[in-house]
Design brief:
Blueprint: H1 2-15, E1 34-38, E2 44-49, E3 53-57, E4 60-65, E5 68-76, H2 81-95, E6 97-109, E7 112-123, E8 126-137, E9 140-149, H3 153-165, E10 168-169, E11 182-185, E12 189-193, H4 198-201, H5 203-221, E13 229-234, H6 237-244, E14 250-252, E15 257-261, H7 273-283, H8 290-299, H9 307-316, H10 336-354, H11 356-363, H12 368-376, H13 380-400
Parallel strand pairs: 12-13, 13-15
Antiparallel strand pairs: 1-2, 2-10, 3-4, 4-5, 5-9, 6-7, 7-8, 8-9, 11-12, 14-15
Helix pairs in contact: 7-8, 8-10, 9-10, 9-13, 10-11, 11-12
Bound molecules: zinc ion.
Zinc ion (ZN) binds next to helix 7 and helix 8.
Length: 401
Amino acid sequence: MALLLVAVIVVVSVLCGGYLFLKGGAPSNVPSGWTTYTQTNNDWSMNYPSSWTVSQDGSEMHFSKDNNLLVVAILVKETDTSKMIQEVLSILGNYYQNFQKLSESTCTFSEEQGMRVDYSFTYDSVPFRGFLVGVVLHRFGYAIYTEVPSNEFDKLSPIFENMISSFTISNLEGVIPYSQWSARESTHFIFHYYPNSNAAGDMDTIVSEHESGLNNITSTLGVSYSGKINFYLYPSDDILYKMTRRDSGFSIVKENEVHSLYASSEERQSVGHEMTHVITYWTIGEPSEALLGEGVAVALDQSGENLDETVSELIFTEMYVPLTSMLGDNWFEQDSFAAYKESGSFVKFLIDSYGVAKFKQLYISQNFLVALQTLYGRGLTELEDDWKTAIYSSWEEEFLE
Ligand SMILES: [Zn+2]
């Protein structure tokens, strides 16, 4: 591997332009008047001119001086460099005026094969030039884009290129690429797992519990799912993070993918939660509310947890969050334990009490509150009271003892 990298570093200077920067972060590699920025969790580093300003904007880092800007953005749930570049271009195209793509080429980026697109746009009637460089590794990607007034582009371009050729993605130690993982195919899944991991030894059980979980989920929802789920089982939180830059499992529904922790039969994520996201996406559609999307995934996670008991305990301990505080993006602002469990129990109540056909209509409705009234003849607070009364009456006595 080390030998290969030497060859790749030379290609960096040829394809991306700019000067040859040796990787490794030794101080002598940083040009005088430049500084190395290292992201606090050590996920990447990049050299930049010391006189420039560094600031954070959400998950992006901005390096700027006067009208000149270079942005480093991380993107998660990415599967392919070219797709990611197109996504970022469409975001830039919507944001900038008169956005025009000028050229596209391959480019070596942090020792990997990446892509570069040059573009122009106008801002406040001033013509601007810039370029976008990016790469996807495993299931996350980095994209760097620049903006500078066109009349300064030739002067600034070498500085941007030197910054980009020093960009190094780190925190990848011990990762085995997906191409070297083992695989096992069953009727509805292709399981991908680390060689010699606990998942490898438990594969017969994993196949049967996921196939029967999928049958339970599709029959509860009254749908048939004919796709095949690529199901990635990670041996530790550390490897999951290094390969996806996420702290816990997730699905990429459009790609029929689930990414899940399976350290052992004890330390693992549920069989059904993430696959429910994939199945509902392809058979029902996209949820109008996180309350519904996460609710159905929790309700059908196949863990056997008694959600009604869990929510009753939230009510009893006054940790309960009203459903009216969980609409739209507010769902993500609430205590996540309460948000998941309450959504799961409420969705289960809707399906059990009123049938799955109405639930599926509600799931993709344009306006959740209007659809509740139309489909159930009741408002959210009334349904919430019905549900709380139904679940709490059977548990209150027990808590009081
Ligand atoms: Zn979920």
